[in-house]
Amino acid sequence: xxxHPGLQAENLQRLLAANNIEPVGxxxxxxxxxxxxxxxxxxRDDRNHWVVRRPPMGGLTPSAHDMNREWxxxxxxxSTAVPVPQTVAIDRDGExxxxxxxxxxxxxxxxxxxxxxLSALTDDEVTASADALVxxxxxxxxxxxxxxxxxxxxxxxxxxxxxxxxxxxQWDIVQTRQLDDVEKLAAALSERxxxxxxxxxxxxxxxxxxxxxxxxxxxxxxxxxxxxxxxxGDPLTDxxxxxxxxxxxxxxxxxxxxxxxxxxxxxxxxxxxxxxAATGADLGDWAFYLGLAxxxxxxxxxxxxHRALAGGSSGADGAERAAQATGEFIAAGLRALG
Length: 338
What we know:
Blueprint: H1 9-18, E1 28-31, E2 39-44, E3 49-54, H2 67-77, E4 87-91, E5 101-105, H3 115-118, H4 123-142, H5 159-174, H6 180-190, E6 200-202, E7 211-213, E8 221-224, E9 231-233, H7 235-244, H8 250-254, H9 268-279, H10 286-309, H11 326-337
Helix pairs in contact: 4-9, 5-6, 5-10, 6-10, 6-11, 7-10, 10-11
């Protein structure tokens, strides 16, 4: 059977057996490249096709690689309009493979990560995919989380304020150098946290490459993936993050020319207009949400380099340089707040 430092076939087979699943033939495991966070594996036997995800192997950032969170929300959303992979098995405590992991059914479709991937789509298909992404995000934010069994998934009240504190704490953990503007941005955000906000399920990492498009219809999202930062909270944090991910420097964080930064997609205003039209949302203090999104991405970029230096990179090139984008995100956050 195949072996990989992050996922050994013998251990995975024991996990599957514990869930009454008997592989047909040997398990074949392949690390899916391109990730900067959790390790993602393509797993096949002679009949089945699965995707297995687990945290990085070193340099972990607390709360950013939560497999149990990913499993719980994906399982709950299976009965809703939000497309998600079918859940198969979970190793909550790392009993079987040595780290928490999830196993879900493989979803056939197109994953648009790079500008090269995007080149396979016509301009009309790019526009259709933008519309589909906003519709999917609106569908997610319309889910009654209590009705699908997620009433205890988190504390939605005060979510935005806790996010400011969370990412400020994360900075203390992952920083690779002194950058005073991070504390300045966090302090400024703390002073203007919105007093009231809607509470919905939030994805926490929503953009084109965390979805799978239908193999023949770019205007339909076949599945939303990468739910490890999902929570109950303010839906405008999802919208703002989706927009800030469009910043060109995000390509340097991923280590390749990201599809989501391409000017073939609508600008931020275009996505915001689509979302407001779909949901009727009041944007409130939109500058706050942009500032928070930039803080989060700045810390995430730093965390990628932190993990790489600790030997926990998921294998993508350039992780040691991802932190070079941190300053640009933090500066953009300060500019957004005026």
